[in-house]
Input
Amino acid sequence: MNMILHKPHVLMISEITADGKLTLKRGASSKILMKHMSQEATILLHETRAAYDAIMVGSSTIKIDNSFLTVRMVPGISPLRVIPSSMADIPLNANVLDVSVVPTVVAVSAAAPVDRVASLRKKGVFVVVAGEEMVDLPVLMDILYRKFSVRKLIVEGGPTLNWHMLYHHLVDEIRLIHLPFIVGGTDTPSLVGGMHVDSEEQMIRLELSEMRMVGTNLVTEYRVL
Ligand SMILES: NC(=O)c1ccc[n+]([C@@H]2O[C@H](COP(=O)([O-])OP(=O)(O)OC[C@H]3O[C@@H](n4cnc5c(N)ncnc54)[C@H](OP(=O)(O)O)[C@@H]3O)[C@@H](O)[C@H]2O)c1
Output
């Protein structure tokens, strides 16, 4: 039984094309699309990071984008970086594992090989165990809240992690930075991956709370009901 003792406030944020895609094609870095975001929207992204305690992305995004997840365009403190990786198989030269400027938490399952966990710890990464075979996200939320004092968490994708966070009812708000492009592709990652819903009762309902232009990008914000 999953008992959520505590959970930070969670904002899901994403850059998204007019056809709902997060990147150019499967396996491509979202940094290619992000280059086309207006400077004002890029600043908004970095301001948002600076206003939050922690930022989380999935392990595949780390492998594909090699993200830094730091605050760069504005003054401010970079949030704690959190990467769920059930088997602890993040490349040891990944930018996010350089903890000289910002600390990083890698969440693993109990099934993660001990030598990989040891290598991560040797790099100064905080390794936390949540779940048996796969990272248990509600448990991870509780660990982040209690052990790392995380009260506000940003989730910056990708679609697999986004789906699991929504499936577990862990997301409070969604902010989308719309890019005026269409990229197509049936298997191109979109905002949310995972399983389809079987009926309209299972649709995740949102309430639009704000929409505004930031530079040349429309930004929409939703509350998850
Ligand atoms: N436009 C944007 O804003 C944006 C943002 C981020 C990413 N992206 C793009 O999204 C693509 C990658 O997305 P993706 O869907 O392939 O991967 P992802 O969501 O970044 O990562 C998913 C991986 O995280 C690990 N994980 C561990 N525990 C998990 C859990 N409980 N729930 C979910 N995942 C868990 C799993 O790998 P293990 O089994 O190894 O643990 C899983 O395969 C890239 O192309 C990237 O460029 C776009």
